[in-house]
Amino acid sequence: MTKSSPSARERIVAGAADMISRRGLNATSIRETAKHARAPLGSTYHYFPEGKQQLATEAVRFTGEWTARSLRKELAAGPVAGLRAFLALWRKIVVDSDFRAGCPVLAVSIEEPPTDETPAALTAAADVFTTWESLLADSLREHGAESDQAAQIATLIVAAVEGTVAMCRAKRSTQPLDHTAEQLQALILATIKD
Questions:
Q1: pLDDT value at residue 2
Q2: Is residue 14 within 8 Å of 6, Cβ to Cβ?
Q3: Where are the alpha helices (DSSP H) in the chain?
Q4: Model-level pTM greater than 0.85?
Q5: Phi and psi (nearest 5°) for 3?
Q6: CA geometry: angle 34, 20, 79, nearest 5 deg
Q7: Sign of the alpha-carbon torsion through 181, 124, 76, 78
Q8: According to the 3-state scheme, what is the secondary structure of 159-194?
Q9: How far apart (Å, rounded) are the C-alpha atoms in residues 1 and 63?
Q10: Rounded CA separation 22/129 (Å)
């Protein structure tokens, strides 16, 4: 059985996530996203009548769930396996893009919002980070880490990996990921009871 091809809406969301990961939110337009996704411009406005912020919100949620699915799967084997998968996922993105792409969730988080209101995309980014932290913390707790320490280490992992991805792009090297992986793995092993 073959996997069905993604719908136009799914292609647009995935395309927006890719463009935001490369250019940032402010430099990503609806028109360029439609072209990148090979979708008609009219369908982009049909699926996202609220415009760029709605599309950015969906792109952030898409990236969040895509990453969370991988984490859930790998964390079944424990927090070290989950960490390795999380790092491998971002390594693949930066290497496959020749160090041009990072995390669209981070990109949305660090850009100046267009108004004084908190945009939905920024709220979605906060939710994604919280989900990733929760998955990691739960795994750490299941393997003997104390509750507060598990939450703190999970935050450290997400923050370290997000920052490391940015460093990899700037340095055009995976060395920051290698260093971060080694230290985070040592921290996890010192924390869990297995």
A1: 41
A2: yes
A3: 8-23, 30-36, 41-47, 52-75, 79-96, 104-110, 120-142, 147-171, 175-191
A4: yes
A5: -75, 135
A6: 125
A7: positive
A8: HHHHHHHHHHHHHCCCHHHHHHHHHHHHHHHHHCCC
A9: 26
A10: 19
